[in-house]
């Protein structure tokens, strides 16, 4: 049962909650201590919040030595569980479910373990509004939730300060993510991009060398053809001259033989 409903229980009966609470009590009574003990969930490593730190909405320099469970964890960067949707300009139009769930868990874990969030704070206030969804007027819904939770010690200052601290927590987590992402990109993408660039330069040099060799081949081919033509001309002319001289001598020998 939510905190909001617990406060209103003396005045309003929640039949459905009573059934659920009774079922939980029966189940807990039959369970052994070993099986009923709660196991603390795995939580991402985030810096302890302090009021002196800047708001999450501010721009902070990236820490390239940052660690983040979604990137530097044992599993590394997990592939998306579904295909994201993109606009015509190419920008993503909606966050993936696992990332929305990550921030929900981040807030829940901080709320449960961080002493700053002991008692009723921003999160309990936001959660309480779910119990009065029937109130259509938004201003009335906010005022009703706040007036009920004031009895638990909630003040406007605490509501605003804890809400700002949740912003800071998300901001620090996002900075850590971007730093770890940049480091991962530098290591696994940028290095390969540099290799591709070097290979492209090598290919360009090889292409230039190939073109130079082709030019040399063409020049040598032209020289060879010219030399072959000259040699063949000389050879054919020489042979023809020799054959003509032989015919001339043979003709003279025949005449000598005929006349003597």
Description of the structure:
The protein is built from 8 helices and no strands. The protein has 260 residues and is an all-alpha fold. It has a domain at 66-76 and 97-211. The radius of gyration is 44 Å and the shape is rod-shaped. The termini are far apart.
Q: Name the average pLDDT.
A: 81
Based on secondary structure, the structural category is mainly alpha
Strand count: 0
Order of secondary-structure elements: HHHHHHHH
Main pleated-sheet profile: none
Strand content: under 5%
Approximate shape = rod-shaped
Report low-confidence residues grouped into runs of 5 or more.
10-15, 24-59
Gyration radius, rounded = 44 Å
Number of helices: 8
Q: Note the gap between the termini.
A: 148 Å
State the helicity in percent bands.
55-70%
Q: Concise description?
A:
The chain has 260 residues and is mainly α.
SSE blueprint:
Blueprint: H1 3-8, H2 15-30, H3 33-36, H4 69-72, H5 97-113, H6 122-128, H7 138-149, H8 156-259
What key phrases describe this protein's structure?
8 helices; 65% helix; single chain; mainly alpha; 260 residues
């Amino acid at each position: 049962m939510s905190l909001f409903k617990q406060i209103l229980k003396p005045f309003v009966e929640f039949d459905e909650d009573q059934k659920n609470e009774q079922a939980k009590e029966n189940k807990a009574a039959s369970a052994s201590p070993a099986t009923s003990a709660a196991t603390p969930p795995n939580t991402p490593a985030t810096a302890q919040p302090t009021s002196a730190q800047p708001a999450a909405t501010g721009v902070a320099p990236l820490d390239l030595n940052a660690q983040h469970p979604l990137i530097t964890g044992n599993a590394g960067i997990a592939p998306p569980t579904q295909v994201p949707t993109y606009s015509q300009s190419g920008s993503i139009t909606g966050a993936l479910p696992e990332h929305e769930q990550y921030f929900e868990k981040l807030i829940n874990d901080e709320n449960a373990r961080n002493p700053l969030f002991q008692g009723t704070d921003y999160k309990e206030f936001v959660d309480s509004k779910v119990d009065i969804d029937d109130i259509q007027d938004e201003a009335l819904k906010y005022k009703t939730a706040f007036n009920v939770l004031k009895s638990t010690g909630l003040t406007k200052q605490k509501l605003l300060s804890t809400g700002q601290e949740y912003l800071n927590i998300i901001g620090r987590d996002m900075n850590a993510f971007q730093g770890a992402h940049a480091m991962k990109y530098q290591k696994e993408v940028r290095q390969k991009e540099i290799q591709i660039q070097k290979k492209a330069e090598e290919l360009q040099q090889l292409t230039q060398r190939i073109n130079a060799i082709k030019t040399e081949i063409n020049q040598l081919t032209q020289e060879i053809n010219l030399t072959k033509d000259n040699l063949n001309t000389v050879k054919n002319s020489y042979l023809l001259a020799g054959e003509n001289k032989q015919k001339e001598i043979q003709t003279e020998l025949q005449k000598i033989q005929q006349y003597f």
